[in-house]
Amino acid sequence: FLIVGLHVIYMSFLFFMACGGNWRHTFIAIKNALPAGVVGLSTMSSLVTMPITLKAAEKNTQNSELARVTISTTVNCHDVGDCISLPIIALTIIYITTLTFPDFTTYAWFVLLVAFAQFSSASVPGGSIAIILPFLTHTLGFTNEMTSLIIALSICLDPIGTANNVMGNSVFVIFMNKIYNKINKYNKYEIKVSAGTEIYKK
User: Fold this and answer.
1) Which of 177, 178, 173, 167 is nearest to 33 (CA)?
2) How does pLDDT run across 29-55, given as a tens digit for each residue?
3) Helices 158-201 and 80-98: crossing angle, nearest 10°?
């Protein structure tokens, strides 16, 4: 419940920010992206879900070219869902096996390593946990039994993480579209000013 709750809160916050703090636009954007999230939940693959994510991105941005470029190049380059899930699972396993919590500095360092490692992991079931196994043993002192347990739990919860990854792709396109529109608007302004200057000189 904690993992799912954090996923929903974090992703809702990102959509809210991407939509400029407008609740109505946020609701519409989430509604458009939700089918892709459901398919991601059932397929456990961001790549398989890409056609539906593209449709959602086109609806949310009204810019099909930008949506195609952004989604196709970033579909497998992050695992934001696992960045939330894995630290919580690891902390839970530590507590139920040792009845203690790691110190804040050690745990914060582990969370940072997990976040950076997700950019190099393969978006396949179990890919994220495989890449952070060295951090679990060296940073948090996981034993073989604890490692086996976190592998099993992470694979069981992977559908939830994949759904969050897909929703993350959808909200990223909205952010990129806002940046694109600002740059495009600035370029048009520069062209207009330059043209006006040339006319003034003539």
Assistant:
1) 167
2) 999 999 999 998 998 888 889 999 999
3) 140
DSSP label at residue 47: T
Q: Which of 53, 11, 45 is nearest to 127 (CA)?
A: 45
Give the chain's residues under pLDDT 70: 121-126, 186-202
Closest of 159, 171, 133 to residue 34, by C-alpha = 171
Separation of alpha carbons 86 and 181, rounded Å: 36
Average pLDDT, rounded, for the chain: 85
pTM: 0.83
| Pair 174, 60: CB distance under 8 Å | yes
Q: How far is Cα 95 from Cα 63, in angstroms, rounded to an integer?
A: 48
Query: How far apart (Å, rounded) are the C-alpha atoms in residues 94 and 100?
Result: 7
